[in-house]
Amino acid sequence: MATSIKFYIKITKRVKEKQSYPIYLRVVHNRQKSEGRISATLIPKCDIDHWSVDHQRFNSKQKHLVAHNILLNEIQNEFHNFLRLHISGMSAKSPQEITNHLLSRHKETFESVTDVITAYYENVIFPDVDKAPGTKINYKKSINYLRNYLLFNKYSKLGIKDFSHFHASKFIDYLKTPDPTQDKIGLNNQTVNSIIKNIKPIFKKLLFENRISVNPFEGLTVSFKKTIKPRLSNDQFNAIVALDLSQNPPLVVYRDIFLFLCYTGLSFCDAIDLRDVILDKGMIELNRKKSNVGTRQFLTLQSLQIIKTYFKQIPEQRILPKRSLDKTNLNLKLIAVKACIDFPLTTYTARRFFRQSIYEAGVVEGLVVKSLMGHTNNNDIDSHYFNVSESVLLEAKVRLESHFKNILK
Q1: Cα 369 off chain centre by
Q2: Residue among 302, 294, 225, 236 nearest 266 (CA)
Q3: Which of 350, 346, 393 lies closest to 371, judged by CA?
Q4: Residue 107: its pLDDT value, please?
Q5: How confident is the model at residue 15 (pLDDT cuts 50, 70, 90)?
Q6: CA 248, 254, 257, 263: dihedral to nearest 10 degrees?
Q7: What CA–CA distance (Å, rounded) separates 343 from 337?
Q8: Alpha carbon 134 to chain centroid, angstroms
Q9: Cα of 95 vs its chain's centroid, Å
């Protein structure tokens, strides 16, 4: 069962002056042979004269011919390595398999962009216990945008190796361009930037795994100006508290929800699901649904007063009446109009108001602020030295209570 390799220049019977010819290899194994072209570089007639049929190399020291000899030596060395590695299983090998190995002909599995982005969400994002449900939803939305772009442009069968900077650039154009025929609105730059930010890790991972040779989103940015959203002043807050809603009783619940958010800084989704068990310690201690980052704070007298309004009156031991976010924001806009506030109120307005109140109350220690707001302190070196204890949080509670009391005078 002899296995051999031979290199030769594949020429025609009559060698023409102005024609070039390729170098081939021939592998003979199990009395069968396989041939393959070594490289795209062709050998002109003038160089063929330097080819030694016996040595299967060029017998010239010209630089470009020496380079050919080096390549042939490397292939021959790899041939012998292959024989050594598969010495016990060579009978099962075919000459074509050896040739494919020497010429790096490996059949690649086709992967479409659509399949890859779907698998990324299912296998990487969804099982990630460190990602909050809200974060996973944002990733899924971003991936759906890319999937819709591929379908819209009939790229559903486009391979990941073929997805280029051109396609990435056109994806941004797709996101920003409205299409009334498809009932599609154009997104602003800030939203587009958030989508691209979620898509980039997919291709970064593919590049790291050598499944693509270049990241099509590398260097692609979407510039935008952060809009400065209006802040609720203390006077405006006081106007909401003092607002007479006797003629509009349904609005009272929405105002109470808003005020509770102002007193605690919680996001709507975290506050609306709180149970009365927090009254045992008079303390809120939870991981935020959006970021999965912990927040800790003692309830102020003002927030406790709202809780007592509904205590034992709501099913499931909730401390606040259950309302939808959309309806809450809609009714807050009505409250804003009645309180003569010149911008629409949202639940997020309350969270910004609470952050401002922390500062005005004199709570300036960074780690305490992060605990109250539910911001991560992973990159804060001081977290290794300073402990936000319950006594520290109690001090912050007293300061906030005093601040809110002064506003409501």
Answers
A1: 27
A2: 294
A3: 393
A4: 55
A5: low
A6: -70
A7: 8
A8: 13
A9: 45
